[in-house]
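re: ur question from yesterday

yeah so i grabbed the chain u mentioned. its 307 aa long if i counted rite. heres the sequnce exactly as i have it in my notes:
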Amino acid sequence: MIIRHLEFMAALAREKHFARAAASCHVTQSTLSAGIKQMEESLGVLLVERGQRFVGLTPEGDKVLEWAQHVITDYQSLRQNLAEMRSGLTGQLKIGAIPVTLPVIALLTTPFAKLHPQTNIIIRSLTSIEIQRGLDDFSLDIGMTYLDNEPLARVRRFQLYTERYVLLTQENELMADRNKITWSEAAAFPLCLLTSDMQNRRIIDAHFHQVGAEVHSPIETNSLITLWSHLRFGQWSTVVPNSFLSLIGKMEGLKALALVEPDASHNVGLVASDRDPLPPVARAFLDVAKQSNMNHEIVRQLKSITS
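ran it thru and got these structure tokens back, copy pasting raw so excuse formatting
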């Protein structure tokens, strides 16, 4: 049994299809099948339920997959460490970020890319549940998410900034002299919000419920771009983190009102597997984060927008 065979196993579990798994490993389907068959013969157990197509893994296969993911990750980390000793950090950094963090994630990825030009960064917009799954199965190195609301398990945490909330709405005479609005008042606006599978939406709903307000959102989306489209081209309002303002900049025809009563806030940060050692790319990214001051930078950007 060799590393390549473990990679075949992981690919088959991920793709759930022999041909797609083989293609992802850049081998023929017969090569992939033969490699898994060799593993079964070596271990003396059946790993894959076979029919005319892939059916699933056996219980023994699930256990082997768990070990395979650990071994593959350790092997990749070893190669990164050796490459770093020779010529600097290399490899792919895989980040899963909840959508509301995407406007500010470049504050970390840009200095990381400049410091480690031989690396490649992949950023995926995911829910907090998908981030947990990705850290558990090693398909992610880093997650960027909330730390104090529905926290993830089996992770190490690093706080980045504190998120506060604003109502973005159409500018009019009634709002001209205001810079704050209560959650109770905001509930009466025609709202376009993130979908309920997003942790940000569950946080927003909880604050509305805290003041006894039932929020109605005729339009829901999992995309910040869609939120922005409805604000820009329709008569809609939304509740978003104040960091969202750094993405959209000056807002002609729109007004941002700080939400108060309660003056809610939540901590956002990075999470990585609590296993040791961490993959070199994950360790290096956390090192960059520790040198940053995202709270200060977000406040600076917001002042430049609102001044």
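noticed a couple things. The chain has a mean pLDDT of 88. also The first strand starts at residue 48 and ends at 50.
anyway ttyl
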